[in-house]
Design brief:
Shape: elongated
CATH class of the largest domain: Alpha Beta
Number of domains: 2
Organism: Coemansia thaxteri
InterPro entries: Ala_racemase/Decarboxylase_C, De-COase2_CS, De-COase2_N, De-COase2_pyr-phos_BS, Orn/DAP/Arg_de-COase, Orn_de-COase, PLP-binding_barrel
Helix content: 25-40%
Strand content: 15-25%
CATH topology of the largest domain: TIM Barrel
Low-confidence stretches: 1-19, 32-39
GO biological process, one term: putrescine biosynthetic process from arginine, via ornithine
Radius of gyration: 23 Å
Number of strands: 18
Protein name: ornithine decarboxylase
Pfam families: Orn_Arg_deC_N (PF02784)
CATH architecture of the largest domain: Alpha-Beta Barrel
Distance between the termini: 24 Å
Length: 429
């Protein structure tokens, strides 16, 4: 991604807002690459001030994100308060932004990586291999060899063929059996692709013993965008049964990985994290009481939880079309879309809704919002209510930090959206 902040000319002339002066990133968050995330600028102040400062530049038109790293820090603090037994391993695939990874590493998070590329990024930031889980049950051989060469030992599996591959290519691995959880309430049912049925677990454990693969724990995933608190409690109970099966074979498991599916702050129609955490906390304490299971380490793989609410996306209205009918309606065309940052509509089942950057009291009209490409699939909002907008107006979409930047493309020759950072919690200082 081409990461630019607010340009130097604007930074040196007129800071917008009471606290939005533009600063260089602290040295420990920079690197030598001019095009890398560390070369971006950030605005000290609120996300709102940064949005206003960016659009106030002469000729401003390009879509851009504002990322509040302070929000990531607040989410981390909430996690440690509500789930003190559970160490978060950030799911890098959700948002591999360099500064997000750097910040979470400094806060003490581990990392869930699913490919050689993600392993390279995280290890390249100086994260110790012991703080990484290679959480992909079906790994390419070359990626597995890379993990072995770099000392990444913790990894998941859910089938016998993977155990044979691990034995051959990474005999020092510490394997974690991923079991199938009830993900019927999730927006994205990962159980359609991964997870061993609970009744298949004993046979897989016996095979691991026969092959000499060191199985150290159990993992599950209740699905991305899980809509059921009870699914977490049920999955912990299933994991406990696998622990019991392992004990019957003489295996002393030491790791419980409760996976992902945790909601981001402010998600419409989603679970409340505090309520979910209470259910999960109680389930862990019931099935893995600290007195009897002090040797069991508990981790999780949250992604959107940390980053969804930290990123807002501003888009510019580049064209409009009035639709004639009994009542006026409008089609608006903006400079990011489904092939770019709004790929979350297709891949993550999201329904982003805009707000005006500069609200005004005006009548509302039936409106649709479309991306910039020549493809009719590129629809951001098919029906909604907005004031009559003019070309050059700005719309803002909040909660855009999860599964957006990571899968954006340059289809039709359009650029990826830029990124400006703010820090409302002193996370970088």
């Amino acid at each position: 991604m081409h990461l630019t902040g607010i340009d130097e000319g604007a930074a040196g002339s007129k800071p917008a807002g009471k606290g939005a002066q533009l600063l260089e990133l602290p040295a420990r968050f920079r690197d030598g690459d001019a095009g890398a995330a560390g070369a971006a600028r950030y605005a000290r102040g609120s996300a709102s001030e940064a949005l206003q400062a960016k659009v106030a530049q002469a000729g401003a038109e390009d879509a851009f994100f504002v990322a509040d790293l302070g929000e990531v820090k607040r989410q981390f603090a909430q996690w440690t308060q509500l789930l003190p037994r559970v160490q978060p391993f950030f799911a890098v695939k959700c948002n591999p932004d360099r500064l997000v990874v750097k910040l979470l590493a400094q806060l003490g998070a581990g990392f869930d990586c699913a490919s050689k590329g993600e392993l390279e990024q995280v290890l390249g930031e100086g994260v110790a291999a012991e703080r990484v889980i290679y959480a992909h049950p079906c790994k390419p051989a070359s990626h597995l060899r890379y993990a072995a060469a770099r000392g990444v030992e913790l990894m998941t599996f859910d089938n016998g063929d993977e155990l044979h591959k691990i034995r051959q290519l990474h005999p020092g691995a510490k394997a974690v059996l991923r079991i199938l959880a009830d993900d019927s309430s999730a927006r994205c049912r990962l159980g359609l692709k991964f997870g061993a049925a609970p009744d298949a677990a004993p046979a897989l454990l016996r095979l691991a013993v026969r092959l000499g693969v060191d199985v150290v724990g159990v993992s599950f995933h209740v699905g991305s965008g899980c809509q059921s608190e009870a699914a977490f409690g049920d999955a912990v109970e299933r994991a406990r049964r696998v622990f019991d099966s392992a004990a019957a074979l003489g295996l002393r498991l030491t790791l419980l990985d409760v996976g992902g599916g945790f909601p981001g702050a402010g998600e419409l129609g989603g679970l409340d994290f505090a309520s979910l955490a209470a259910v999960l906390r109680a389930a862990i304490d019931r099935h893995f009481p600290p007195a009897a299971y002090a040797h069991v380490r508990v981790i999780a793989e949250p992604g959107r939880y940390f980053v969804a609410s930290a990123f807002s996306l501003a888009v510019n209205v580049v064209a409009r079309r009035r639709v004639e009918g009994a009542a006026p309606a409008f089609m608006y065309y903006v400079n990011d879309g489904v092939y770019g940052s709004f790929n979350c509509i297709v891949f993550d089942h999201q329904r982003p809704r805009p707000r005006l950057l500069s609200p005004r009291d005006a009548p509302l009209f039936a409106s649709s919002v479309w991306g910039p490409t020549c493809d009719s699939i590129d629809c951001i909002m098919s029906d909604g209510q907005l004031p009559e907008l003019q070309i050059g107006d700005w719309l803002v979409f909040d909660n855009m930090g999860a599964y957006t930047l990571c899968a954006a493309s340059r289809f039709n020759g359009f650029n990826l959206s830029d990124l400006v950072y703010v820090d409302t919690e002193g996370a970088l200082l």
